[in-house]
Amino acid sequence: MRVSALIVDDEPHAIALLKRRLISHSQIQVIGEANSYEEGLIQIKNHNPTLLFLDVNLGRGKTGFDLLDQLNPKPVVVFTSGDPSNKDEAIRVGAIGFIHKPFFEDTVAEVVSKIVSHIK
To answer: Which domain holds residue 60?
Structure first.
């Protein structure tokens, strides 16, 4: 089983690093990426991913929480952020996980394991 995933983050280097970390996890297939709130909405509509890696701060006053509010139905979500204080809010809104930047391999592996168990 492979889970289709989309990454939404306003930092291109963060997207590239997360994609590199996910390469070793064959259960996750990154099918798209977006660099902004607006592009995220379009890419989600176009690709309908099962999983969303969603940055908390998307720039220009928009957040991943704002984007998630616009989705119905909502995909499985893992929030990402450079600020660990966002973790409680991410879990409160239903995220399956939270990854603190920079994306350490062991943290990504732990979240991927949780995702695969949840989706099965």
So the answer is: 3-119
Of 118, 46, 70, 120, which Cα lies nearest the Cα of 54?
Answer: 70
Residue 5 and residue 52 in contact, taking contact as beta carbons nearer than 8 Å: yes
The closest of 65, 78, 73 to 113, measured between CA atoms, is 78
How many domains would you assign to the chain? Answer: 1
DSSP type of residue 53: E
Give the relative orientation of helices 105-119 and 12-22 as an angle to the nearest 10 degrees. Answer: 70
**pLDDT tens, position by position, 59-116:** 999 999 999 999 999 999 999 999 999 999 999 999 999 999 999 999 999 999 999 8
Instruction: Residue 63: give its domain's CATH number.
Output: 3.40.50.2300
For residue 109, the model assigns a pLDDT of: 95
**Start-end of H helices in the chain:** 12-22, 37-47, 64-69, 87-92, 105-119
